[in-house]
Amino acid sequence: MKLTQGLAPINLRKLTPKPYLSQLIKGLLCALIISGCRPAPPPAEDIPVTPEPTATAPTNTVVPPPPPPNSYLAHLSPDAANQLASLSIDIVIPTYLTPNMTLANYGVGTEASNPYYWLVYRDTQNRCFAIEYTSGGIGDISLENREPLNIALFGEGYGLYHGRFPNGDEGALPESDLFTDWLPGEDGFYRLIGAGLVNSQDYGQGDCSNITVPEAITIAESLSYLPSDIRTLDVAPLKPEALSEESFTP
Fold it and tell me: N or C, where is the chain less crowded by C-beta within 10 Å?
């Protein structure tokens, strides 16, 4: 007896699974519908751009004040420098000055067609020295003590004299002083002198006292020519090391 006997035939098409294409389309449609319902993101806020500041020219130009009289090279004012330049010779000046030392007086001129000049410096303690120039007629004088000088402008072999004046058989004069040798240049002779000679000259100064011997050496060794155009000078005298008065006889 067959088991299939009496049974209706099976419809195989109904048992076949449905294709996935329609399901995929439905899924895409649902996704599109859901995304369309979401609110749109807010627009990005514009960030303001701050412009860079631009430099503007000042409305009022401030003119700096003129330099003080003592700020010039060797404390020579433009008028003094012009008078010295009018001599048409090499002008020797100190490029180092002790603190509070200023140009107290100066003289420029000619005698019998021979030029001369002198520069007197004085500080707040009434200590003085001067730089002198003459075109000739120098003499040799000395004092009790002599210190060697090494002046870059004139070389070696010259000295600074200090102490009392020898006066033959009469001994020494009561006052002490200091000065250098006459230093020869192409146009004449130069020297540094101390308070004794400054007071005895008609330099418009009185009651001066001497600077120290170490200070005089430092100033003498700083002597240099005044350039024809002081605007081109690049001289910045270095501050000397601590000056010591040891080994010097007053």
Answer: N
